Amino acid sequence: MLRIHFTDADLARTRVAAAPDPLWEITFSLHRFQTRQGRWAYADWHRRALAALSEKGLGRALPTRLLPLFPRAAYFPDFLNPAEASLGLAAGLAAIVDTPPDRVRNEVGRLAVQPTGAPSWLTGLTEKENREELAAALKDYYNAAIAPYDDQIRARLDSDRHIRCRTLLHGGVERLLGSFGTMMRWRAPVLHVDYPVQDRDLHLGGRGLLLVPSYFCWRIPVALSDPELPQVLVYPLHPVSAPEAVGNRSERPLAVLLGRTRANVLRSTATGATTGELARAAGISASAASQHTTALRDAGLISTRRNAASVLHTLTPLGASLLRMGRPGGP
Prior knowledge:
The protein contains 14 helices and eleven strands. By secondary structure, it is an alpha/beta fold. It has three domains: 102 residues, no CATH class; 128 residues, no CATH class; 79 residues, Orthogonal Bundle (Arc Repressor Mutant, subunit A), CATH 1.10.10. The strands form three sheets. A four-stranded mixed sheet has the order 3-4-1-5, with no helix packed on it. A four-stranded mixed sheet has the order 2-6-8-7. The longest helix has 28 residues. The radius of gyration is 21 Å and the shape is globular.
């Protein structure tokens, strides 16, 4: 159990990440190669990613270079997930390269005493040129195994972010912290998090907490090991059930009525979405998404509100009723 202790200042500084963190997605996608837990939810990705890695000549680097550095274990080095990655992959990789050698030595040493162990070559990461080679390998891995799924990942994270932000809007930070079901339980002023290691207390001390949703994280949230670093809590998205992964029969009548793409757009509007988010969720262009939202708005199923340079689409009562009609036991 991980217990995260909040002060009033921490509650004021708690926020939800605005975009996927590429290095955390690398980390957890590598974990997906090390276990069969949740394999059904990533089966298509697993097959295609292995093929892409082999095609790019990275098949050997996966088991010999990457997996030993990112073990699915109680500990892996914190310097592999720097805060700078919130600015993008290039910034995150640059931060890895610029990590002080003493910190690399200490964290690799901690990894070496774990039950999973660590190959001897990891000690060479104290040399900057070796960290540059690692950064290049991580970039190649990302481009082969994760970048092709960027739209799908962003659509899932956009949906989760809308849910969290609406919870924050209507109930404040404490309601947000209490919105994660059984994997986290808010008992003011402590957030109790299911965790794969022994009991641990983390005192934020006024720094706040960044909540980072992750597409490849499975079941259990993860925090950094070093309590002195800027604190993040990476959490899994709501899992897709097996029937939903292959297509939910209960949604077919709605697809017959509206067409499959327009039905997908309508469903994606359930938590509120911009035109770009709807396009990613439905796998269509932004112009096509705009045409579908115009048709749905003209039919009275959604409403549209402009906010600066973007627009937010939400369901009308009629649109919500139509969605409920297509569900088992609806309306």
